[in-house]
TrEMBL record:
Annotated Gene3D superfamilies: Electron Transport, Fmn-binding Protein, Chain A
Protein's UniProt name: FMN-binding negative transcriptional regulator
Source domain of life: Bacteria
Record Pfam families: FMN_bind_2
SUPFAM superfamilies: FMN-binding split barrel
Length: 200
């Protein structure tokens, strides 16, 4: 989390929407085997918890249950050139959106895992325009059982939400507008749009 308090955003609905829209993140844990990170799809449960699954063979899977872990979700970002400022005494920087989630993790039972996978696939299949959505019932039961045996579901009860929305809030409005225009022109449309929408 960036130390500048101007880059905070405390709208919990916005933070949960970020997790939902990005849908993917990194889980960090210090284990007896050393520090580990796992990359995984994420699903906010709407009750302050986030669900995810890992391969049973992942180096982190055997240690997560009951531990406090950290999840990081990265949103839009973009390089900010000093050329875009009217004030010439500027240096390069990076605007970005990131969210750290800290909380206790519990292992889900098999029904919870199936529910998580069904919800994840439904969420992301709905984003694909063409064709009929994939569902688990399209798998032969024995094949599905074998696939399920290879993964473990987890749920984090989020105890701390630490967001960074670094959107040039430390610059005057006219400079922010120039930076947003520069970012958009260079293809970083997502971060430019967030600058325009979230910073007054």
């Amino acid at each position: 989390m960036h130390p500048d308090p101007r880059f905070r955003h405390e709208d919990r609905g916005l933070l949960e929407a970020l997790v939902d829209q990005v849908g993917f993140g990194m889980v960090f844990l210090t284990t007896p085997d050393g520090p580990r990170v796992a990359h995984t799809p994420l699903l906010p449960a709407g009750d302050g918890s986030v669900r995810f699954h890992l391969s049973r063979g992942n180096a982190m899977s055997k240690w997560l249950n009951g531990e406090t872990a950290l999840i990081v979700v990265n949103g839009a970002d973009g390089y900010v050139s000093p050329r875009w400022y009217a004030d010439t005494e500027q240096v390069p920087t990076w605007n970005y959106v990131a969210l750290e989630l800290e909380g206790r993790v519990r292992r889900m039972d098999s029904d919870g895992l199936v529910g998580l996978l069904g919800a994840l696939s439904a969420r992301h299949e709905a984003r694909i325009a063409a064709g009929e959505p994939w569902t688990m019932d399209k798998m032969p039961p024995e094949k599905l059982r074998a696939m399920l045996a290879g993964i473990v579901g987890f749920e984090m009860e989020v105890l701390a939400w630490r967001p960074t929305f670094k959107l040039s809030q430390n610059k005057p409005a006219d400079e922010r507008a120039r930076v947003a225009d520069g970012l958009a022109a260079e293809g970083a449309v997502g971060i430019a749009e967030l600058m325009r929408r979230l910073v007054p």
